[in-house]
Amino acid sequence: MEGKIKAELVFIPSPGRGHLPAALEMAKLLVNRDQRLSVTVLLTQSSNDTKNSLGSYSRIRLVNLPQLEPPSNSTLQKHVRNEAAKLRNLVGFVVDIFCTSMIDVAHELGVPAYLFFTSGAATLGLLLHLQGLLDHENQDPTVFKSPNDEIFVPSYGSPFPVKFLPTMLLGDNQMAMDMARRIRRTKGIIVNTFSELEIPAMKFLSQDEKTPPVYPVGPVLHVDSVDDRNPIMKWLDDQPDSSVVFLCFGSNGFFDETQVREIALALENCGHRFLWSLRKPSGEYEDLSEVLPEGFIERTAGIGKVIGWAPQVDILSHRAVGGFVSHCGWNSTLESIWCGVPMAVWPLFGEQSVNAFQLVKDLGVAVEINMEYKKSSANMIVRADEIMNGIRRLMEPVSDIRVKVEALKVKSRMAVGENGSSFESIGRFISHVMVNINA
């Protein structure tokens, strides 16, 4: 009886790169922790990479839902309902922030819904705080007179500048507010963070009577290791300790030709070795040499390397890497902290500007290149001097940001270790779920 599956969770993740891998890693953590648990993952987009990442996890099952063109929420709910109804011992749904409409399906089936929040607790606190002000105090703090205005948000330790608010929270923010209201209807919120990283946020969320129980379970990392003989890793092996600045802006982190040339100019003149993950936007150019300054590759051959896809965690873990220029996606943020690598922030879109603010102002583990950059803004260019100055501050061998990020590295590993804060939080979540078996 010990190994018999006794409880089934349904995961409904968003297909995005910042969401699906983290959800699968969370599912692995749960089934590894408790032999009674199994997980069915309902996928709105099929992917061979997803199947390959599971390996031998027999208690995690992937189900591809019918592809909908155009997407229809009501039809998707129908398919989710049909699949979930087939399961015995169903104890709950775990849904992504962009799948909160599935909470209604869980309730129809008589099981609780939980949220898996793939961003940080401070961002969650920001969303819930703004919704609370709007609904209970009839205040909309996103309506401001000046972009330099600041608001009090209890999930941050510093006053929050409204200019860093994500676009979805500005103007017509009805969709975001509806998400927040649905979040409050869940039985619990799993957050990819650890308590020691976001102390003000965890305090606020735990004391807010209108917020469901929060379970900080991170860092939940998706590590896709490469062979040591990989050319990128071999190149890093030849570099001195902490000498390389690594630049990577996520799966959608590509720039136009003008911005690429400014980055190249900064790297050529900053005086530091570099590893640059340069993504090509589809249709704009075929070859990287078309957008890099003429002769750049040849002139920097002794100090730098330009690559496409990057095994990010492997690179950040390498002794040669001393700094990370990042778009501040939450997964990248956690990976950098896990590896003890300080950051230079350059957010592009979404909640990345919120993460950047937190890293620089609250946590003190990053320097700023440009926190006001908006990828969607026409003609917005970060100049080479600005980039170069940021890299030079980042790569200073002795600095407060290095001391602070090293301390958080230690705390992040303690959190997921046995009896650590995240380890214990996962245990509390499982205990909460198992109560639903005979409910």
Automatic annotation (TrEMBL):
The keyword Transferase applies. InterPro entries: UDP-glycosyltransf_plant, UDP_glucos_trans, UDP_glycos_trans_CS. Its EC number is 2.4.1.-. GO terms for molecular function: glycosyltransferase activity. Transmembrane segments: none annotated. PROSITE patterns: UDPGT. It comes from the Eukaryota. SUPFAM superfamilies: UDP-Glycosyltransferase/glycogen phosphorylase. Pfam families: UDPGT (PF00201). Keywords: Glycosyltransferase, Transferase. Belongs to the UDP-glycosyltransferase family. This is Glycosyltransferase. It comes from Castilleja foliolosa.
